[in-house]
Structures are given as structure tokens and as C-alpha cells.
Amino acid sequence: MTQAARDQRIGATILELHNISLAFGGVKALSDISFDVKEHEIRAIIGPNGAGKSSMLNVINGVYTPQHGDITLDGVRFNKMNSRRAAEMGIARTFQNLALFKGMSVLDNIMTGRNLHMKSGLLAQAFRLGSAVREEIANREFVENIIDFLEIQAHRKTPVGRLPYGLQKRVDLGRALAMEPRMLLLDEPMAGMNIEEKQDMSRFILDVNEEFGSTIVLIEHDMSVVMDISDRVVVLDYGRKIGDGEPDAVRSNPDVIRAYLGAGH
Ligand SMILES: Nc1ncnc2c1ncn2[C@@H]1O[C@H](COP(=O)(O)OP(=O)(O)OP(=O)(O)O)[C@@H](O)[C@H]1O
């Protein structure tokens, strides 16, 4: 898709962070941060080590409650998001330290992402009543489509722990996609990957955004890998926002250059 076509796809603002501040004891992880996310965009949050990226992601999905500021999601304003509400509102995430069940197969790991969509109760599932069986078949089909989409068919039955790291990250993305998220939060999706794996992951992120229509917020330490795929980028440094805009503008922002040079990048 060309950038012009992508720009056309981008819709209204769906998430707004207003003046978020978060401290751990005396450490200010986030100081007065505001930015927004528009429907269907790929929004990156970048910054050197300790800049506050993970904290920001954890505020968005309700793991951390900021001391100041609030969040507006679909026009509803919260000062306290929680993980359950975030999931119900269609926010799914991946983790930097993979949260997969290493002994379970690729298929079963991705199936765990369907839990929120299971309507029949445990009893119906235990006795395999008609509705539960139909539901399981539909969920299974959904998961098989994700497996095809992520090109991991050959590994469907393989325990996740036996796969190379790059493929495990892809399974983690599949698990999040199984939740049919409206917004996907990706926690350093390219960390620890070789160049080829990074290119593959970049392509999958673009494809997910295009084909599933998910809005994507991703945090990344290495700015070079996100510039090509992001519509807009927020830059954090020591818990403050020092840049926000399209990749070209951010790349030539003197404060951003200074922060990255200062951090030895
Ligand atoms: N649970 C916590 N308890 C205490 N301090 C924390 C906690 N989480 C983060 N911090 C501190 O908050 C600051 C921001 O950390 P954060 O992990 O959000 O940064 P980051 O940009 O994600 O860094 P990295 O790229 O290294 O993952 C750091 O000084 C960190 O030590």
C-alpha cells in the first residue's frame, strides 16, 4: 500500500493520553505525557533505555495507574484503566519477555487468545454440548487462519519452546491476534532478532494493520526499524516527550538526535 493510500485509511482519534505522570518512589518514569492514536494507524513510541516506553504501554493497558492524567478511549474518559477493561475494549498486547506456554503447541498457544471469545460456560464445554462444540470449531477455524496468515503452518503442532526466537515472537503475535483486537500493543516486537527476522516481522506488522485493520501501538528501542513502518512516532527520553510526528520530522528533530547520540546510538 502506498503512503497516500495508508493516509486515507487513517480515521478519527480513538485513544488520547492526557498529561500522564507516573512515578515509582522517587523515580519519575513518565512526566506529563500527552499524545493520541488514530484508528488504523501504526504509532510507534521510541526512546533510549529507561525512557519510559514500557511504563507507557503498561499505562495504556491498565497494568499501571498513573498518579496524574487520564485516558480517553472511544470518547470515554478514564483515570483508571484496568487490564480486564482494556481487553474488553479490544486492546491486546504482546510481551517483550514472551508470555507463551513453552511446552504447549503453537496451535494451543494461539487458542489461548480465544478465551475472551468463548461464550459457552465451563459445564457446556466439559460435556461437549452442541453449542460448545460449534463454538470450538469456529474458534479453531479462526486460529487456523491466523496460522496460515503468519506462515507457521509447518509448526502447528510443535511445542513453542522448540522454535527459534523469531518464530516464537510470531506465535506471540498470533496469540494477540486471536483476541481480534481493535488495538494491538506490541512490546519491542523486533528485539533480539536478526536482520532477516526483523524484516519478516516488519512485513507482518504492516499486513496485520492492512488485512485485520487493527490499530497498532508499538514500542521500540531501535529507531531505525520502526521508521519505515510507522505513520507517526512519539519519542520519549527520561520520561519526557521530546518529539512527536511523522518519521521524517522526528528523524531531523535536534532533541531526538541529541537524545540518541547521548545514549550512544
Ligand atoms: N516497576 C518499577 N519499579 C520501579 N521503577 C521502575 C519500574 N518500572 C520502571 N521503572 C523505572 O522507570 C523508568 C522507565 O522505565 P521503563 O521500563 O518504562 O523504560 P523503557 O523505555 O521501557 O526502557 P527499556 O528500553 O530499557 O525497556 C526507569 O528509570 C525504570 O528504572
UniProtKB/TrEMBL annotation:
The keyword Phosphoprotein does not apply. It holds the Pfam family BCA_ABC_TP_C. The keyword Cell inner membrane does not apply. Keywords: ATP-binding, Cell membrane, Membrane, Nucleotide-binding, Transport. Gene3D superfamilies: P-loop containing nucleotide triphosphate hydrolases. This is Amino acid/amide ABC transporter ATP-binding protein 1 (HAAT family). InterPro entries: AAA+_ATPase (IPR003593), ABC_AA/LPS_Transport (IPR051120), ABC_transporter-like_ATP-bd (IPR003439), BCA_ABC_TP_C (IPR032823), P-loop_NTPase (IPR027417). One of its GO terms (cellular component) is plasma membrane. GO terms for molecular function: ATP binding; ATP hydrolysis activity. Residues 15-263 form the ABC transporter domain.
